[in-house]
DUF2335 domain-containing protein (Halosolutus amylolyticus), 177 residues
Amino acid sequence: MRLTPSWFRSSPDAPSEERDEDADTTAGVTIYHTTGSEFSGEGVGESDRVGEFLPESNDSLLAIVEGMQTPVTVDEVTDELIGPARPSIEMWAAVHERLHRERLPALDASGDIEFDEAQGLVERPAQRGERNLLSLTALGAISIAFLVVLVALVSTSVLTAVLVTLVTTAAVWFVPG
């Protein structure tokens, strides 16, 4: 996971004293990890602003995720929600954190998406729903009905042929001539 906005690029000229042992510098991007369980960068006013970028309902969030080519990362969903606004990195991180800890796990629990918290991947679940089950049941019923009609027609034809043969044979034996 990149854990930074798509528009943010780290400068390789950053002084080394700005980095600490909690920083992950893979791929040239400095990522600072929080040590507490709660995201400490979210202030009271910032919490209200996070709501500006997140859809109010899970259905709206689900529609946005379904509009994306899955699997997607939480970072990509965050970028999609933030759009062209380009707020501060702290705001982007607050939206990312709310998605990762609250909204996406809620959609996963409801079965609307499959969310891997460890990798931060969001996928759509397999398309094996009630609609597919209903169509398979209907197809099975139609197939059985077709077979019954086919057997009845073949049986009727065979029965008619046997009956005509018996009547003709009886007529030949019993009619003088």
Q: What stands out?
A: The beta strands are 23-24, 31-32, 72-73, 114-116, 121-123. The chain has two domains: 16-123, 128-177. Residues 61 and 167 are 76 Å apart (CA to CA).
